[in-house]
Amino acid sequence: MMQISESYNQKNSLYNAMNRFIGAVNNMDQTVMVPSMLRDVPLDDAEDVKADGSAYFHDGDMYSSYLLLKSIRNHMEWGILQSDEWRGEQAELPQASPPDSEDDDLEKQFHFHLTGLHAVLSKLTRKANTLTSRYKEEVGCRN
């Protein structure tokens, strides 16, 4: 019984979700040989709506989603690099006041954000897989 529980937890771990997303984007990147072909190709696909009842990424075309997915993957693999220009823009924005750390339940906050991150990574992974499939359909190489 312990092995079943452990394998289920491992399957749903953040590390594995990140690996699935990065793998899906790498597969997308290797499949899409001519990214410019994705311009002006609408992204609204029946699979997107079926996946979780909402059409995420429905605005824009496949090319903008392709660039977004690659950018997120790069941030995950290499970290978010901050240029001096980006720092200057952030300094101009009003900063939110830090929460009162004495009253915050850090464990609840951690679980809330972890759950959200896991959900976002799952959606991004499905989006990368959908984009790869749609590209194959567009170029006529369906496996």
Structure description:
Helix content is 66%, strand content 0%. The protein is an all-alpha fold and 143 residues long. Helix 2 (14-31) packs across helix 4. It starts with a helix and ends with a helix. Mean pLDDT is 76; it is low at 93-98.
Which tags fit this structure?
143 residues; mainly alpha
- Biggest sheet, in brief? none
Based on Cα principal axes, name the global outline. elongated
Q: Count the helices. How many?
A: 6
* Contiguous runs where pLDDT drops below 50 for at least 5 residues: 93-98
What percentage of the residues does DSSP assign to strands (E)?
under 5%
Radius of gyration: 19 Å
Structural class: mainly alpha
pLDDT averaged residue by residue: 76
The overall strand count is: 0
Rounded to the nearest angstrom, the distance between the terminal CA atoms is 38 Å
User: Helical residue percent?
Assistant: 55-70%
Written as H for each helix and E for each strand, in order along the chain, the element string is: HHHHHH
